[in-house]
C-alpha cells in the first residue's frame, strides 16, 4: 500500500506517515484486522477507525499497546477497538455478540437508536 513507517511515538510501537493514507467513512484506508474467534464463521473486523490513532497531522499509529512480559491488566481489546461497535453480553446463554464498526452503516453509538424495532 506504499505506507511509510516512521519512528514510534510512545506508547505505540508501529507508526506510519499519513502521506499516502487516505481517510474514509470507516477511518483511515489501511488493511483491516480480522480476529477469527472460535470458528472461521465468527470474525470481528477492525477497520481503520478502530485500529489507527492519529498522533499528529503527519503520523498515525497502530492503536494496540504491548502490555509487556508482566502485564498489569487483563485488557486485551481496548477502548479504541470497541468504539462505535455494539457489544451484547447474553448472560443467560453465556454468549457474547458484537458488530463491526457502525460507521459503515452511517451511524455511531452516539446517535444509534436503541429503541427502534426493525
TrEMBL record:
Transmembrane segments: none annotated. One of its GO terms (biological process) is proteolysis. InterPro entries: Aspartic_peptidase_A1, PEPTIDASE_A1, Peptidase_aspartic_dom_sf, TAXi_C. GO terms for molecular function: aspartic-type endopeptidase activity. Residues 1-99 form the Peptidase A1 domain. Belongs to the peptidase A1 family. This is BnaC08g45750D protein. The gene is BnaC08g45750D.
Amino acid at each position: 500500500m506504499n505506507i511509510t513507517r516512521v519512528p514510534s511515538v510512545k506508547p505505540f510501537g508501529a507508526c506510519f506517515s499519513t502521506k499516502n493514507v487516505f481517510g474514509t467513512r470507516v477511518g483511515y484506508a489501511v488493511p483491516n484486522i480480522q480476529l477469527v474467534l472460535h470458528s472461521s464463521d465468527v470474525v470481528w473486523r477492525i477497520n481503520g477507525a478502530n485500529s489507527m490513532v492519529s498522533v499528529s497531522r503527519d503520523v498515525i499509529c497502530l492503536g494496540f499497546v504491548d502490555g509487556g512480559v508482566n502485564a498489569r491488566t487483563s485488557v486485551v481489546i481496548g477502548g479504541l477497538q470497541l468504539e462505535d461497535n455494539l457489544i451484547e453480553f447474553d448472560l443467560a446463554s453465556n454468549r457474547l455478540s458484537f458488530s463491526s464498526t457502525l460507521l459503515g452503516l452511517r451511524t455511531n453509538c452516539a446517535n444509534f437508536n436503541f429503541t427502534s424495532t426493525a
